Each structure stands twice: as structure tokens, then as C-alpha cells.
Amino acid sequence: MRGNLIVGQSGGPTAVVNASLVAVIQEALRHDAIGEIYGMRFGVLGLLREDLVDLRRVSSEMLEELRRTPSAALGTSRAGLGDDDVDRIMRIFQARGIRYFLYIGGNGSAATALRLHRRAADLRYDLWVIAIPKTIDNDLVETDHCPGHPSVARWLAVSVREAGLDTEAIGTADPVKVVETMGRHTGWVAASTALARQREGDAPHLIYLPERPFVRQRFLADVERVHRERGHVLIAAAEGLVDERGQFLAASQRPVEADPLGRPQFGGVGAVLCDLVMTHLQIKARFDKPGTMQRVSALLSSRVDAEEAYRVGQAAVREAVAGRGGTMMTLVRERGPVYRSTTGAVPLDRVVGDIRRVPEEFIAPSGYDVTSAYMDYIRPLVGPLPQYARLAPAARTPI
């Protein structure tokens, strides 16, 4: 069936989400079944306001530049939909002849896509709805990994490698550093800091994930031990750490700091951990909190990530034109010694309502590190990292 297509971006921007958008546009231009190609400004907020962009008018030169540009070119949002909103969107689709709805985002975006898919079915309106995965958190189920995650992993690997060298060099004055990573409910982002290590004993020395309850006395013992052994400590910690009661260590409950979906504003774990170290161990500590900059670095983006983000966008258009809807595109890792992936698709109702946490086999028995299985999983997604030198012990011996 011939019809118009609309695409939007939702949730946190990433280094490669525009690659998915460009793929949708370029692939849609190849299909006679697709008429107009609309982009919604700021996700479903723009759709409700009919704030749309004519994507057929974007030049091929601009598309190629956009493919390499970080952040979300259409603008993004975190917005929930009421029943009236859903019905209004369906009326907009019908009035504009929209038959293809492609939404690039994470868990919330998949939930929105599923609602529109089901409402269209109720109205017996032919609408092909496809969710295109995008999240640095890597917490969508049914896919090997999520576009956006390998790039934040690469950024953190390089940044923590350099922060480790900094801490080692100035450990006599600033012996303990905490790097606070993003990660609301899962530790995928924090786990990726393990890539920073070039050799045994390198930073990060301790990695804390939300998948394990944070125990204060154990943490203090860990820090004290590493400091005694090395004279300096670098800690990587996810912003969503929880204590033994399941309470967040640092999350604002003030309404003004909640996001539009009512979720608390995270951030502050680094300060909490530093305070524990200074209060109970009497050791100076400071923290680095890169915040949102870690998710949109084009300079340190992963080549694999950029290519896969493009491919899932391309595959989404083909899925829709083939008359298959109510699905999310996935990445499937092929078996073999050399990393390869293909695209797949799964029903949205198998995705929505679930969160993919770091599995047991990826978390070290100690609870503050990752396993070799995890390293085998993440390394091929990130690619080679810059190698840094150290003076050999003999060269450091006073003459």
C-alpha cells in the first residue's frame, strides 16, 4: 500500500542516532510505496503539534554530513501519551495519509510505538509501526546490544584510561578519584570502563553497578585495600547505585528535577562516595562527572556503532514496506572468531515492559568488577583504543 512515512527521535541523544535517521530517509527515497517523508520535531511532541519537517527536501550532501553528526537532528523529548493524545495522533495520520511510523529510541519509545500499533489495529487503520533501537544504556531486551552504547563505551574507555594516568601521577596529592557514569537502572555503561585497562592493575580499580547492592562497609574496605596496595584508587560508579534496601544512593525527589515522565533526576553518586571515603577513611577524594557529554562524542564514536545504527534504520524501512509492523529492529551477533552482526526484528510486546540488566556471567564474584566474558562481549563493539606508555621501573630508579 502506498502511503506517507513519518520518523522521529526520542529519549537521550547519542553519537550515532542521526545515522539511523539518515538511513531511514535514504532508504525511504528508494521505495515507490512511500510518498511524503516527514520528520517530527522533538518526537511525539512535534507530532501532536504537527511540527513536521519535509525530509525529501534535505540535500544528499546534507544527509552525508548529518550521518556523521552527533546528537538528534530532529530534536527529541521524553513525553508520555494520554489516550486523547493517541487518538489525536491517529487523526493526524489519517488526515496526512501516513501509513509508516518509525520511531528511533529506547524503552519509552518502544512503548509509544506499541500503543500506536495497537490503536491502529483497533481502528482497522493500516499502519506499519517500527521501533528503531537507540540507547546508550544498552537495556533493551531481544537485541545483542543497542546502537549508541558502543560509542559511549568507547568514550569512557579512553576518558577513564586518561583519568587513571592522571590519578596515578598525582596520587600523592589526590589519591582517590570517582568517575560517575550514566546508568539509571543498569550497569552496562559503568561496566564499559573496564576497557580502560591496558595492563593488570590499571584503572579502574573498582567498578560498581546497580545490579549489585552497594554495601558501604564493603566499599570502604575495598578502597582502603587498593589504596594501601597502590597508593591511589580510581573508582567507576553508575549514577543509579542502590543500597541494600533498594534505595538510590543519590536521586533527587523534588518535582522540579524530575523528567517529564516523573522519574527522579539522577546524579550525585560521585559526591556521596567521595564523602564516605573522606569521612571514614580520612583520605582525600574527588570526583569527575562527565554527565551528558559522554553520550554524544563524535570524535570518540565507535565505527561499528555508526555502521550498525545506519543498518537498523535501513532495515526498518524495508520491514515496513514489506508489510510487517508492530516490531522493533534488533542486532544479532553471528557466531565465529570475527565479529559480525545482522539485523532482525521482534514483536514489540516482547520488548516493552522489560529491562535488560547486566547478566550474572558478566559480573565478577567480588561484585566490583566484570568478567572476561563481558570483555569478550564489549571489545569488538568498541574497536582499538589509543595505547599509552609508562616509564619502565628501571628508568624511574634514581641515579
UniProtKB/TrEMBL annotation:
GO molecular function, one term: diphosphate-fructose-6-phosphate 1-phosphotransferase activity
Biochemical pathway: Carbohydrate degradation; glycolysis; D-glyceraldehyde 3-phosphate and glycerone phosphate from D-glucose: step 3/4
HAMAP family cross-referenced by the UniProt entry: Phosphofructokinase_II_B2
Binding site for Mg(2+): 107
Xref: InterPro entries: ATP_PFK (IPR022953), PFKA (IPR050929), Phosphofructokinase_dom (IPR000023), PKF_sf (IPR035966), PPi-PFK (IPR011404)
Name of the molecule in the record: Pyrophosphate--fructose 6-phosphate 1-phosphotransferase
Family of this protein: Belongs to the phosphofructokinase type A (PFKA) family. PPi-dependent PFK group II subfamily. Clade 'B2' sub-subfamily.
Keywords: Cytoplasm, Glycolysis, Kinase, Magnesium, Metal-binding, Transferase
UniProt subcellular location: Cytoplasm
One GO location term (cellular component): cytoplasm
UniProt record, GO biological process: fructose 6-phosphate metabolic process
Active-site residues, record numbering mapped to chain: 137 (proton acceptor)
Enzyme Commission numbers on file: 2.7.1.90
Binding site for diphosphate: 12
Domain annotation Phosphofructokinase: ranges: 5-318
Role this protein plays: Catalyzes the phosphorylation of D-fructose 6-phosphate, the first committing step of glycolysis. Uses inorganic phosphate (PPi) as phosphoryl donor instead of ATP like common ATP-dependent phosphofructokinases (ATP-PFKs), which renders the reaction reversible, and can thus function both in glycolysis and gluconeogenesis. Consistently, PPi-PFK can replace the enzymes of both the forward (ATP-PFK) and reverse (fructose-bisphosphatase (FBPase)) reactions.
Positions bound to substrate: 135-137, 182-184, 239
Reaction(s) catalysed (UniProt annotation): beta-D-fructose 6-phosphate + diphosphate = beta-D-fructose 1,6-bisphosphate + phosphate + H(+)
Subunit: Homodimer.
Cofactors that this protein relies on: Mg(2+)
